[in-house]
Amino acid sequence: MTHIEVTVNGEKRSAEVEPRLLLVHYLRDHLGLRAANVGCDTTSCGACTVLLDGKSVKSCTVLAVQASGHEVTTTEGLSADGELHPVQAAFRQHHGLQCGFCTPGMVMAAVGLLAEIPHPTEAQVREGLEGNLCRCTGYHNIVQAVLAAASEVTA
Amino acid sequence: MIPAQFDYVAAESASHALGLLAEHGDEAKLLAGGHSLLPMMKLRLAQPKVLIDIGGLAELAGISVDGDDLVVGATTRHADLAASDLVRHEVPLLAHAASQVGDPQIRHRGTIGGSLSHADPAADLPMALVALGGSVELQGPDGSRSIGADDFFTGFFETAMRPDELLTAVRVPRQPGVPWGYQKFVRRANDWAIVGVAAVDGRIALANMGPTPLRATAAEKALAGGASPAQAAQHAADGTSPGEDIHADREYRRHLAKVLTRRALEHQAG
Ligand SMILES: Cc1cc2nc3c(=O)[nH]c(=O)nc-3n(C[C@H](O)[C@H](O)[C@H](O)COP(=O)(O)OP(=O)(O)OC[C@H]3O[C@@H](n4cnc5c(N)ncnc54)[C@H](O)[C@@H]3O)c2cc1C
Ligand code: FES
Ligand code: FES
User: DSSP of B31-91, one letter per residue?
Assistant: First the structure.
């Protein structure tokens, strides 16, 4: 077992974990944070996307021990006091989801993208979400939601 | 999918990592970004007993200029390479190659040292290193040495690096303003090249046209002899025998190599 100390959604957590424990399983099974989904489990679909020190990563391909000493943000950590984060609100407003399975990962990838490029073009949004697959929406409304959130955040 | 059990050590320095490699021998593997190794461990294609994490070593990261070379530390992440103003100015082809790897999440984790050590013939950075005529710096128990790109990639996922060595840095000649071309043919977002071509300064490198990244030497010779890009590109696949998979058979890959080489030579950025 290896001792880890991770700041998750602003809260310091520590645990003894097996080194082979994946970050997504630490979040879901140990901490009960189930927004990040396991879709493909092969670094392709992006459903497991969380932020690690503010950068989007696929938590099915990060070991919990690699996150020790770092900050993790999940979708649960976005909304303060029941208020939706602007990206979440924009997904709802612009119908950026249907079944919702990809949504937490899409939202985290979008939040990470807007931190890097606050005013993205449509092409930059599409490229920025290249690591996230959606089987339902056809992407159009997701892209519209992210563009709307970008103008909202900086308005 | 859960990897087999292993012990984990976060290396405190490059020399600590080298010591651990010497101590554990074949049982140990270095872990950098984990974006080639962890997928293989999840599939149990790799089952190291000890993982030595060098991903957090600041001494191995960073980008600087040293005389005529740009020097990139092994644990520099693809995203940082792609976004670096220094790299975009001094060796724009390298920054572009890094921006073509996978997707944003993969680029936030994967490192140049990991990509070159993994030596996937379809990958972007090995092809870029060959096109640029760069070299890698290796540190081992007996000191350090440097190997040029043409000698580093020795076979399918094989390099001239010994198991007790650490790739510490990558060196590429600075070439601000030199025209370059880059073509990567894919069918799916975030995929490896079905065929890739990187061309700069008379050198042409191919991805996924054989067991290693290759130089298109016949096309280079034709160019040097005054052939037009279209004429030279006709020789891009000479001497190659690429593999076949669900994406492409051998003839299709050979055809793609010619088309993409012509495009890489005709659509050069400065
Ligand atoms: C879904 C997916 C899509 C991808 N698409 C692309 C793509 O389009 N193009 C592309 O080029 N790549 C692609 N990749 C691979 C990606 O670039 C990896 O990041 C890279 O190949 C490995 O770098 P890493 O730092 O993650 O290495 P790791 O996985 O940590 O290590 C890889 C290997 O190198 C060894 N190693 C690592 N660092 C060193 C070092 N400093 N010295 C000696 N040995 C070392 C390790 O022991 C291991 O054997 C993709 C990966 C995934 C999962
Ligand atoms: S579950 Fe991690 S990328 Fe699909
Ligand atoms: S909303 Fe169903 S997968 Fe995206």
Answer: ESS-TTHHHHHHTTS---SEEEE-TT-GGG--EEEETTEEEEETT-BHHHHHH-HHHHHH-
CATH architecture of the domain with range A86-153: Orthogonal Bundle (1.10)
The per-residue pLDDT string of chain B (270 residues; one tens digit each, 9 = 90 and over) reads 999 999 999 999 999 999 999 999 999 999 999 999 999 999 999 999 999 999 999 999 999 999 999 999 999 999 999 999 999 999 999 999 999 999 999 999 999 999 999 999 999 999 999 999 999 999 999 999 999 999 999 999 999 999 999 999 999 999 999 999 999 999 988 899 999 999 999 999 999 999 999 999 999 999 999 999 999 999 999 999 999 999 999 999 999 999 999 999 998 877
Inspect the interface and report whether the beta carbons of A20 and B3 lie closer than 8 Å. yes
As for the ipTM of the complex, it is: 0.97
Start-end ranges of CATH 3.10.20.30 in chain A?
Answer: 2-75
**CA distance, residue A46 to nearest chain B CA (Å):** 8
pTM of the predicted model as reported, rounded to 2 decimal places: 0.97
Which residue out of A24, A48, A56 would a mutagenesis test of the B interface target, given it has the greatest number of B Cβ atoms within 10 Å? A56
